[in-house]
Amino acid sequence: MKRFLVVFLELLLVASFNLFSIGRDSNPLPPQYKKWLDEEIVYIITPKEKAVFLQLKTDNDRDLFIEAFWKQRNPSPTKERNEFKDEHYKRIEYANRNFGEAAIPGWKTDRGRIYIILGRPNSVQTYEGASSLYPIIVWFYQEMGQHGLPDAFYVVFFKRYGAGDYKLYSPSIDGPQSLLANAAAGQTDYPSAYRELVSIDPNLAKISLSLVPSEPSFDSSPSLSSDKLLFDISSYPQKKVRDEYAEKMLLYKDKIEVEYSANYIDNNSLVKITRDDSGIFFVNYLISIPSLSLISKDNKYFTSLLVNGNVTEPGGNSVFQFERTIPLELGPERFAEVKSKGFAFQDMFPLVEGNYHFSLLLKNEASKEFTSLEKNIYVPNAAQLQISPLILAFKLDKSTVPDSNQPFKIGEDLLFPSIQSAFSTGDPLFLFFQIYGLPEEQKEKYFVGVSVFKEDKTFKSFTKKVAEYGTASFYLEKFSLSAFSPANYRIRVSLLDQEMKEMIFEEEYFYISYAAALPRPWLHSSIISSSLDPRYYNILGEQYIKKNDVDRAKPLLEKAYLKDPHSVQFALSYSQVLLRQKDFHSIIKILAPFQNEKNNEIIELLGRSHHALGELTEAVTYYKDYISRFGVNYTILTLLGDCYYREGNKEEAIKAWEKSLELNSNQDTIKKLVQTLKREKSK
């Protein structure tokens, strides 16, 4: 077993210190980027960052990545000077100047590697010239307790067999006997070698068994935890940075302007689906960032947030896209609150049932920073019996805008969810959920069971009849957390039948902090129109159109149009579904009142509808009107040529088709028709 552990630890250490030599892309990097990757930052780059960097194809993208790499490590992001970067290159310079051996540069040695990762040790002790010991150097570090390292520890280097470069010492792999010179070579086992070291230097003997001074020693066997320490040292730089920015840069590099590319900021986010009294499902999202940069003028602070959202089906088909600009103006007090607590933004949008991927890009126009979220979401079929995902909130407040929609609004109240499901004992906990597919008349037959578990043991539980919640479309419970000790908890909501058997359930985890109160970011919440607004029917109908579900799209789009027949958008959307059903008479009736609008889609649809009905003169009029108002378009020219041809005007048909072919030559059928007509004309 001991031999197995030693071999395992050897592999672990080798893997940790060679972590960055794998995964190289087959396309060679230009020399300056190869040097940066393989020499300058080899010990501090994370595997995710390296994988992303190797996928970049242009020098411009690589330069932007390098800029972002250092920004993520800048302890003072608002300052132009990056102290971390400066210190890192100073360490490399020091390592090269002091630790190089023959043809091996200092950064590549064990001492150079540790120095670059951890910096200057608090103290150094050397053992050189002693006849009984090989040359040994002991570095001692203190106050390194962050990111998984002990508060105090040693790092030992020694010259194996007294020659060559100093190598990193491992108590379990090398053992105390490897520190003894040839004169003491007879001491080949741990206990006897340890006793020999005790007679030479008791402190060195203790270090030879454990690099962690606080670790108790029970015998003369080396400590395996020391090898874990050496592994943790190798991963220490990676734990100090959140590398999600690298994936975001790769994902959005073709979607954001260059000035934003290197300025990714991390976030916490929450996405929940709710159904309001109208039956519409809404996606509620909340995104929180640690800081918000603003422009200062006349003791006020400004910026605009640019929001871009996209909802796609698993195959990549886009069902819904939206863009919003959120202007912000803060006074001094509000700015101070944002500066100290952070900033959160929440919004919502309607979505039809299905499985989707939701991506959101949020840009700060003032600082040219961006952040993003990506979530897989599911909008249920309300007819099926199910419980919604649970929402855990730390606050419930009355809405000040009753005739409107707001994210996480339930009835006339607003929920304030905890993004990371973290609470203090002084907080209340509001539990929100919905049950779908349960007819009103059956609510007397069923029960809701709520259980809170601490370490998988029931901490609190109760049951209530579903009917006790009344006729509301949602269910709400409030807990006092004063009796909850700091720990991780799990809450489970179940639907129970008359025999108290669980039918369906939903769960959520939450955490009670040791802190007396938790800082909550300042929240900006969008306010949108109520569910009575016909725009929602239009949005949902267009979503069904993009899902190729015309049967579900039509009643929604028709409802929106009938609610507001003067809306160009509603008329156009309804006409699109009528076009698929070839109801050309209805399209003409709906769109004719809008023919003077500056909208090319209206003119094209009117032309196509008259064309399909054989009303060629009217179709020609609309196609010509289209070209005169909106410019040449090869599709319109092709259709115009077809009208002329059907009317027997072959001269005009040839002219229209030849202009169309100038714009798009990949129309083989039109080419053949033109050639045929020209041959006929020449006879």
Outline the fold blueprint:
Elements: H1 2-17, H2 31-40, H3 47-55, H4 59-71, H5 83-98, H6 110-118, E1 123-127, E2 136-142, E3 152-158, E4 167-168, H7 190-200, H8 202-209, H9 225-239, H10 244-252, H11 258-261, E5 268-275, E6 281-289, E7 295-297, E8 300-312, E9 318-330, H12 332-341, E10 343-350, E11 354-364, E12 369-379, E13 386-387, E14 391-398, E15 404-405, E16 409-410, E17 413-417, E18 422-423, E19 428-433, E20 435-436, E21 447-454, E22 457-465, E23 475-480, E24 487-496, E25 502-512, E26 522-525, E27 528-529, H13 535-546, H14 550-563, H15 568-580, H16 584-591, H17 600-612, H18 616-630, H19 634-647, H20 650-663, H21 668-682
Parallel strand pairs: 10-26, 18-25
Antiparallel strand pairs: 1-2, 2-3, 3-4, 5-6, 6-10, 7-8, 8-9, 8-11, 11-12, 13-20, 14-17, 14-19, 15-27, 16-17, 19-23, 21-22, 21-24, 24-25
Helix pairs in contact: 1-9, 3-10, 5-6, 7-8, 13-14, 13-15, 14-15, 15-16, 15-17, 16-17, 17-18, 18-19, 19-20, 20-21
CATH architecture descriptor name of the largest domain:
Sandwich
The share of residues in extended strands comes to 25-35%
The largest sheet, given as strand count, sense and whether it forms a barrel, is: 5 strands, antiparallel
Helix content: 25-40%
Rg calculated over all Cα atoms? 35 Å
Low-confidence stretches: 1-25
Average pLDDT score? 90
How many domains in all? 3
Number of strands: 27
User: Judging from the principal axes of the Cα atoms, what is the shape?
Assistant: globular
Class derived from helix and strand content: alpha+beta
CATH class of the largest domain: Mainly Beta
Number of helices: 21
What is the CATH topology descriptor of the largest domain?
Immunoglobulin-like
CATH superfamily of the largest domain: Macroglobulin (MG2) domain
N-C termini distance: 98 Å
